[in-house]
């Protein structure tokens, strides 16, 4: 069966957004708008799998939405909404909890990392998180999912759930005249020059909102002076820059900064090094500051302006949710019929 090409992705409203979120996710969401119909979701139900302060959560949901809009996602042409406003996510997640096997979830590395040593004390929601993520995607029968490397395993699980549902209910799907398979097996869209943005203090660690040092990351709402000083203080090594990307091997800090420049400038690392190879980091860093400030400054400014007007953001989310609900309800009606629920 042919499925309509559709992109779905989600961002958790937890902690301040930083350059890693922008280059790894949001900038790519913007680029996909011309080739696909897109749904971009602020996944607030995923956020509460670990404790969130209610006042902070509300603020963060609006801040992620503001970042989407400020970066150039068009909420009229596409759909921008928060997950909890469309009840189909929770409903389909329950069905998927009954499709997915314990053994599958036991293999999820992100759960092991997030639960840490005290696994007995992790929420049931944190454990079942991947089946909610599968529901997010399959509720719209989305075919393409831009995600970071760290979400690849969850996307594979999504495919396994889709396939098992299609199999387990094959005769029921066919009997309803819905074709041979009901859910597509969604493809990850991974890659780009900065698929992984690393800490500015340690090229072996991912840039992260939970790093205790604020110097390790560039927040989307940092002002120009802060961005400049963080880049100037970023860790490097004593060698001059190589003239080809190949020469970045074994030099994680250099590779990270070149990757950031390439991603922000939307060019290849080789192109960046053709310009800066052989030169000192100080020259390169000055150019990186200019590029970062030119790219991120307007986004941060627009985010602040939008966040100051929460009523407008809430309108965007409500409108997006209403349009998402139309698609979600259609899928859920079929799912209920397929499973054998009376409605
Ligand atoms: N788990 C993703 C993350 O932490 C967020 C997410 C939730 C998501 N649902 C999704 C991403 C559906 C893509 C598609 O980054």
TrEMBL record:
A motif ('KMSKS' region) lies at residues 206-210. Its EC number is 6.1.1.2. Keywords: Aminoacyl-tRNA synthetase, ATP-binding, Cytoplasm, Ligase, Nucleotide-binding, Protein biosynthesis. It comes from the Bacteria. It catalyses: tRNA(Trp) + L-tryptophan + ATP = L-tryptophyl-tRNA(Trp) + AMP + diphosphate + H(+). InterPro entries: aa-tRNA-synth_I_CS, aa-tRNA-synth_Ic, Rossmann-like_a/b/a_fold, Trp-tRNA-ligase, Trp-tRNA-ligase_bac-type, Trp-tRNA_synthetase. The keyword ATP-binding applies. ATP binds at residues 12-14, 20-21, 148-150, 197, 206-210. A motif ('HIGH' region) lies at residues 13-21. It is an enzyme of class 6 (ligase). It is found in: Cytoplasm. Catalyzes the attachment of tryptophan to tRNA(Trp). Belongs to the class-I aminoacyl-tRNA synthetase family. Homodimer. This is Tryptophan--tRNA ligase. It comes from Ancylobacter moscoviensis. The gene is trpS.
């Amino acid at each position: 069966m042919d499925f309509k090409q559709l992109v779905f992705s989600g961002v958790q409203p937890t902690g301040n957004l930083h350059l890693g979120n922008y280059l790894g996710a949001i900038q790519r969401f913007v680029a996909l708008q011309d080739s696909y119909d897109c749904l971009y979701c602020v996944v607030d139900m995923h956020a509460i799998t670990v404790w969130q302060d209610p006042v902070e959560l509300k603020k963060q949901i609006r801040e992620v939405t503001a970042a989407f809009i400020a970066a150039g996602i068009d909420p009229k042409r596409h759909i921008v909404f928060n997950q909890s406003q469309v009840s189909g996510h929770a409903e389909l997640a329950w069905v998927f909890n009954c499709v997915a096997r314990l053994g599958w979830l036991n293999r999820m590395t992100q759960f092991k990392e997030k639960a840490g040593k005290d696994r007995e004390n992790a929420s049931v929601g944190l454990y079942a998180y991947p089946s909610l993520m599968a529901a997010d995607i399959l509720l719209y029968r989305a075919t393409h999912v831009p995600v970071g490397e760290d979400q690849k395993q969850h996307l594979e699980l999504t495919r396994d759930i889709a396939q098992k549902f299609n199999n387990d209910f094959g005769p029921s799907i066919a009997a309803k005249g819905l074709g041979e398979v009901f859910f597509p097996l969604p493809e990850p869209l991974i890659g780009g020059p900065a698929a992984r943005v690393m800490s500015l203090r340690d090229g072996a660690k991912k840039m992260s909102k939970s790093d205790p040092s604020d110097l390790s990351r560039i927040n989307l709402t940092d002002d120009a002076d802060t961005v400049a000083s963080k880049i100037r203080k970023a860790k490097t090594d004593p060698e001059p820059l190589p003239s080809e990307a190949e020469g970045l091997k074994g030099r994680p800090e250099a590779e990270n900064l070149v990757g950031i420049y390439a991603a922000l400038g939307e060019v290849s690392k080789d192109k960046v090094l053709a310009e800066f190879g052989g030169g000192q980091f100080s020259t390169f860093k000055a150019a990186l500051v200019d590029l970062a400030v030119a790219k991120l400054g307007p986004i941060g400014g627009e985010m602040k302006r939008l966040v100051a007007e929460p009523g407008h953001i809430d309108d965007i989310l409500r409108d997006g949710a209403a349009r998402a609900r139309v698609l979600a309800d259609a899928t859920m009606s079929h799912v209920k019929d397929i499973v054998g629920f009376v409605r």
